[in-house]
Amino acid sequence: MSEQEPMKNEDIFSKVIRAGRRTYFFDVRSTKADDYYLTITESKKFTNDDGSFFYRKHKIYLYKEDFENFKEALEETTNYIIDKKGEEVISDRHQKDFTKPSEENLETSEETTPSSSATAFTNVSFDDI
Predict the structure, then answer these.
(1) Residue 105: C-alpha distances to residues 91, 99, 114 (Å)
(2) Three-state SS for 81?
(3) How many helices (H) and strands (E) does the chain have?
(4) pLDDT digits 0-9 by tens, 4-29
(5) Where is there biased composition of kind Basic and acidic residues (predicted)?
(6) DSSP secondary structure string for all residues of 83-107
């Protein structure tokens, strides 16, 4: 490649999916032979102790010859998950339980008593050690 010829790796088409602190990028790019391929990038936002943040990225390069197998495997695995676990997002259900307790949860928690293992305590004298 000569210095006068710019590097050809620009995005032809892009689709972005935001999912909490993750973002997924689906980008169509061009090869040197002027064919297209797909990059799928997962970008996750992380926070440092000082409050600054950074992104960690993971990429998958997918070429046309693999599209059909990729689509079939993606469809099969996503259908398997939905069939086995349903469409409800479990982390959303748990988050609701922790942020806004229902009347049912309050009644249950008042009736339950701590387990014997939680209440049992062995008085240890340091002289015994």
Answers:
(1) 17, 12, 16
(2) helix
(3) 4, 4
(4) 444 455 669 999 999 988 999 999 99
(5) 92-103
(6) HHH-SS-HHHHHHHHHHS--HHHHH
d(CA 24, CA 21): 10
Helix (H) or strand (E) holding 73: helix 67-85
Burial class (CB in 10 A: 0-12, 13-18, 19+), 41: middle
Question: Tens digit of pLDDT for each residue in 91-101?
Answer: 765 555 555 55
- Here the tokens at position 90 are 């479990």
What's the pLDDT tens digit per position in 33-67?
999 999 999 999 998 999 898 999 999 999 999 99
Which structural domains are found in the chain, ordered by start?
11-100 (3.10.450.700)
Q: Which residues contact 127 (CB under 8 A, 6 or more apart)?
A: none
Q: Encoding tokens for residue 101?
A: 């307790």
Tokens found for residue 7: 């590097």
Which amino acid is present at 70?
A: F
